[in-house]
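task queued by scheduler; priority normal; single chain, no ligands, no partner chains; default sampling; output format set to structure tokens
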Amino acid sequence: MVFRSLKTLESWLAEYRRLGMPRADSARVMVQDGDGGANTGLVTFHLDHASTVVVIQPDAQGSGGWVATMEPREDNVVLDSSGLRALSAELAAVSELCIFLEAKARSHGGVDSA
């Protein structure tokens, strides 16, 4: 399975921030234990208007795409129109980050070393 090392993901996220992308400061790279002790990373994005974390990672099917998973919540999220607009902007930023990571992964090619 293709994975990206912690170092690779951190460099991609730093580049994303330098581009001045909206809400780039809400994204972080976290350590993820990979197969055989590989030093893999996981990208997370905190949503302020839904109080949840989105996990962004390569598609497990190996399609080259990246997917976003929203953690489950215990409580309902109730938003007025301005809150919904703000949440939609956050989700648009998650989408832009996924597009960026897909492009970086395709141009990077191969599998990172552990």
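post-processing summary
- Residues 6-108 form one domain.
- The first helix runs from residue 6 to 18.
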